[in-house]
Write a structure and sequence with these properties.
There is one protein chain. Helix 1 crosses helix 3. The protein has three helices and six strands, in the order βααββββαβ. The protein starts with a strand and ends with a strand. Strand 4 and strand 5 form a beta hairpin. It is α+β, with helices and mostly antiparallel strands and 139 residues long. The radius of gyration is 15 Å and the shape is globular.
């Protein structure tokens, strides 16, 4: 298992960050993703959609700086889409007063790195489009 990440610092509000994430994910979905999602729906394997990530770690109660907002979305892939294959993209946002710290995270399988990288790149680009002063660091 691997993951792709990006860390951002933006002056967008928390609500604006949520909307930019939504727009970025929509832009990241290509024709293959839409076809894979349709195949998954036809076979009853559709897992796509938004969700709230959870931290089930036994150490979660020790987190002294939990995110103020978190959201995830499952984006289907074309290859094997009928079986429900895809990539989850998570966004965690911390309100730091005059700015927001944003972390984008996409875990992937051994062969899912390209799809995860594409999704993280497109969502990060949506933040750059919405806030030209955003600071982005890829992880």
């Amino acid at each position: 298992m691997g993951s792709k990440q990006a860390q951002l610092n933006t002056t967008l509000t928390l609500k604006q960050c949520a909307e930019v994430f939504r727009v970025g994910v929509q832009k990241a979905r290509g024709v293959g993703s839409m076809l894979g999602g349709a195949g998954a729906k036809l076979t009853g394997n559709d897992q796509s959609g938004y969700f709230t990530p959870t931290n089930d770690s036994p150490f979660a109660s020790l987190d002294d700086d939990p995110p103020d907002f978190m959201v995830g979305v499952f984006v289907p892939k074309f290859a094997g889409g009928g079986t429900g294959n895809g990539t989850a993209v998570h966004m965690y946002v911390w309100d730091r007063g005059s700015s927001r710290s944003v972390e984008l995270y996409a875990p992937h399988s051994l062969v899912g790195g390209m799809h995860a990288r594409k999704l993280i790149t497109k969502v990060a680009q949506a933040f750059t489009d919405a806030d030209p002063k955003v600071q982005v660091a890829a992880g």
